[in-house]
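I hope you will forgive my troubling you with a question about protein structure. The record follows directly beneath this note:
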Amino acid sequence: MKSKIILLGITGSAAAFKGVMLASLLRKEGFEIDGVLTPSALQFISETQLACVTGRPVYSSLFTMQPGDPVPHITLTDSIDLFAVVPATADFIGKSANGLADDLLSSAFLACSAPVIMAPSMNTRMWNNSATAANIEILESRGVIFAGPVMGPLTCGTEGMGRLMEPSSILKLCLDVLSGRC
């Protein structure tokens, strides 16, 4: 039986390391994981770090110099079973809701026909902003599934809603979506 493929996008958040943790959990479950890092994510984690966990190449540029794959935003989404963005910043959520595609991850999102899970991670004030709420409403109306966020300590030293869900909880949601239970 062919293993299922998950496209895992990681955006520029202090919680980016939890995306790597999720990749490890997914691989232990037998999934193949293709990783995409936004330019901002590269400020927190490296391509090498994610590639070591997934055992596969990691992508970070919309304009790669790979003659065999001149359109990675299309080919990366051709045969995936799930697209997960962990963590999903307010910026990525806003771009996705408005159809903006200025990097590999946002372009892949627009080209994707597989189920999508986004796990938000941001400051409470950003989470509570009416623009964020409107963007989430738009994406939910288009079928995007949101995993969290949850209450807890935030990077800025405060506590509140906006903390990324734990990777084990996101894994459970991924398994539910892939099995058709969600």
